[in-house]
Structures are given as structure tokens and as C-alpha cells.
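Data card: per-record layout.
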Amino acid sequence: MKRLGKVSFFCLILVASCVTVNIYFPAAEVQKAADKIVDDVRQEEKAPPKPASHLYQQFQGLRALGLGVNAAHAQVNVDVSTPAIRALKASMQNRFPQLKPFYDRGAVGENNNGLVEVRGTGGLNLQEQARVNQLVDQENKDRTGLYREIMTANKFGPESLPQIQKIFANSWRSSAQAGWWIQTDNGQWAKK
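The structure for this 192-residue chain is written out next.
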């Protein structure tokens, strides 16, 4: 009887911890918000709808198992419409047409931390090299600010920042055009 009580208590703690994680960091909702922001930033690229991300599919699998996280997630609304977020998004939208030629030429790529990375400047003249470095610095400053602002606006703890970056990395990479460089989760670079 004592053993059954300990097992029941352990199961209760396990289920409660799953719900707590999902209440405080709603990965599926952040992924939807990230996809929307990335689509807005790269609005000139009207592609067919993307399949659901891997994280979103995992979340849906948990819901299908009936683990009791549905109610907690159904009430979460990730806020991505603060004045600061709108300003950062507008800045990135305005910059994207300037960055796109460098993506197309293979000079920059999307890394696995949600940032733009200079890949190779060998085919660029000195003025283009300076310009691409300036654009990448500005873009990464805005992206980092965006991730922090999403964390702050939604009262996520600082431990959620790496998760937000990974989720956005998935969105940036999945929206990349064929032929652009993307960095996989294991750190390897490949053309999409």
C-alpha cells in the first residue's frame, strides 16, 4: 500500500511538471508567432503554406495522448504586438530587400541560433563586404532584441531565451529559399 502511494505521488509530480513547463513556455504558440513574424518580414516571398514544424508536431502528439496539457495551452496567447516588437519587425522588413541579394549569392546564411551569419565574402568587392557586415550586424541586433522583447512581453523567464531563439531559427531556416545556406541543429552548413 505504501509503495502504491509513492508511485501515485511520483506520477502526480510528473504530470504536474509537464503542465507547468507547458504553461510557462508554450512552444507551439511561440512557433506559430515566429512563423507569422518571419513570413511578415519576408513578405515578398509568397510560397505555398509550410508544413507544421517539428516542435509543433511533437506538441500535437502530446495532445493526442491526452496528457492533460490541452487546457493549459488553449488559454495561452503569445503577445507579439507590443510597440517594440512592431518596430523591430518593421526594421527587419525594411532591411530584408538589401540582405536578399547576399543570401542569393551565398554570402550569408541562417544559423541554428536564429541569427544571420556571414558565410563567405570571397566573391564580393570591398564595398559589398563592408555592406554585408553592416547589414548582418544590424539584423542580428534586431533579431536579438526581438527575441528578448518576446520573452519580456510574455513574462517568460530568461531561461526561455535559448528556446525562443531555437524556435525562430526553425522558422528562418524553413522560410529560406532553395539555394540559401542554412545551418542544421548539429552545426553543419548546407544549401537548402
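Known properties of this structure: Residues 19-23, 45-49, 61-75 have pLDDT under 50 and may be disordered. The beta strands are 108-110, 116-118, 181-183, 189-191.

See the next section for split statistics.
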